[in-house]
Structure formats: C-alpha cells, structure tokens
Amino acid sequence: MSIQHIKQLLLLVLSGSVVVTVTLLKKLFPNAKIIIDRFHIVQMLNRAVNSMRTDLMNRFDHNSKNYKLFKRNWKLFLKRYDDLNCTYQFYERSQREWVTVEQLVDQGLQLADQDFSKAYWDYQRLLEVIDDPTPSKTKIFKQCLTEVNQKYPGSRSKASKADKALLTLYDNLIPVITALEPQYCHYTNGPLEGINHKIKQIQRTAYGYRNFEHLKARIYLQTYLGKDTRSSVKTA
What we know:
The chain folds into 2 domains: about 40-180, no CATH class; about 190-230, no CATH class. Helices cover about 60% and strands about 5% of the residues.
C-alpha cells in the first residue's frame, strides 16, 4: 500500500499545534477531519493570560502588596474559577490578612486593567467549554471568537496577547470547533505530551546522558517501576 493510498484512507488528523496551515493538511489528507488538540488550545490561551499577568504585576512596586499578590499566587489565576475554594481561610503573609483563594483572585481582578480582566474571563469561558462541550456552550465560545475578530477589522497589532491567541483560534475556527464536537472531544495528545515532559525532566535533572541506553533505562524505571511507590503522592 502506497503512502498516497494511506493518505486517502486517513479519516482523522489530530494536530499538535494551533498554528497550522489547514489548507496544507487538507491537501495532504483530503478525506480527513482536521482537529486541533484541545490540550494545545488551552495551553496557548493559558500562556497568554500568564504573560499578561506578569506584565500587570511589573507595573507595581516590587515591594508592594499588589506586586506580591500577583507574584506569589500566579497559579491561582490559571485555575478554573469554580474550583477556587471560597470557604477555607488562611493567613496570606503578603497581604497581611486572612483570606480564601477565591478572595485573592477577586482582589487581583479588581486591581487589573480591562484587558487582563477580559482575558481572564475569556480563558475561563474556554475552560468551561473544554470541560463540557455542549452545543450551546460551543456556540457562545464561537460567538466570542467572532466578536474578537470584529474588534480588529484592520491591523491586529494593537490586540492584547490574549486577543491575539483568540484571533489565532478564529483563523483556525473549523478545526477548533470540530475538536469541541461530542464525537471528537475525547481525542487528545495530552498523554503523549505528559510522556515528553517526563523525558525532558529526566534529562534536566540528570544534566544529560552520554549513553542513550542509560537514558532509556531511566525512563523505563521511572515510568513503569516507579508507579507503585509514588501512587499515593499528590501532585499540584
């Protein structure tokens, strides 16, 4: 069977990148559904929001409470808002008060400018669609992308980092929306990305390997033999 024949038979292409040339993929795989992996859709907007948080943080004095709020609690701004604890209070040293994690995020949003606030809630809307890709939620998200595109009819140079990420999704609207359809939403490269991350961490902690067989052996040991010993350890 030739490669061309295989390309004709292929029915599904899962792209590991949001920035793809859909026309090229369609030409290579004419009968396939093009899907952009949900993992990378979330990752792109996640990075944009985090970068905007850093820019916002650096506007404040480095010794101020506002700076420390965004610096110390950066992970909270990337979590799902519905998952933030709104009942358990703890003493936050940087703010010198008893607060919940939800209150910390709310305080940050009150200090934020309009661009960051919009980016944060657009990100939350995306997470909600990814978690539960119902037709109604998908329609709302599609409308959000359309509104962002209409906001920049000419040049996109003045768009915020989050809006640029959303515009990229709009430019690849069909494969993005296809990824949210019920029959395709379970396809993901997430496990493969996890394996790649594990291998990179092994290389980093070992400062490289001269012998490739030793690297393979350590990957095998940590992946398969280390499961039972670390199964009870919670990860962030």
